[in-house]
Amino acid sequence: MALGVAAPVFFPGIGGIVLAALCVGGTFVVVTMVGLQEARTVAGARAPRLMAAMTAAFAAGQIIGPVAVSFAVGTGGGFSAALLAACAVLVAGALLLLSPARRSVRVG
User: Fold this and answer.
1) d(CA 26, CA 95)
2) pTM to 2 decimals?
3) What does the pLDDT read at residue 108?
4) Which of 13, 34, 101, 104 has its CA 20 to 30 A from that of 19?
């Protein structure tokens, strides 16, 4: 997903957009389904409440993301800087998910 977000920076034009669509769209569906399965595993009977919280967090990101991008573009960072920042956040999130400390913590 991170590579897809950064693709338009390194491959300007329609090729970068198509690559981004494939990488981000293809992984988004998988990430969403795994997240819902994990909610069922972690929360059991309270899974719907956790799924609702996850959906609300996603919605907040959908609101905050464009505002952050417009701020980055307005301060002279440009759209490429915003894409690279998003890529970095995705990589950091993936690294956090791979950390041993995360595997030992269970909620519920």
Assistant:
1) 20
2) 0.67
3) 47
4) 34
- Distance CA(3)–CA(20), nearest Å, equals 8
pLDDT tens digit string along 40-79?
A: 998 888 999 999 999 999 899 889 988 888 888 888 877 8
Does 102 score more than 70 pLDDT? Answer: no
- CB neighbours of residue 78 within 10 Å: 13
Per-residue three-class SS string for the chain: CHHHHHHHHHCCCHHHHHHHHHHHHHHHHHHHHHHHHHHHHHHHHHHHHHHHHHHHHHHHHHHHHHHHHHHHHHCCCHHHHHHHHHHHHHHHHHHHHHCHHHHHCCCC
Distance CA 27, CA 87 (A): 14
44 phi-psi bin (left φ>0, alpha ψ -120 to 50, beta other) = left
pLDDT of residue 26: 81
Task: Decide if 17 contacts 5 (C-beta within 8 A).
Answer: no
Q: Which two tokens stand for residue 51?
A: 């799924």
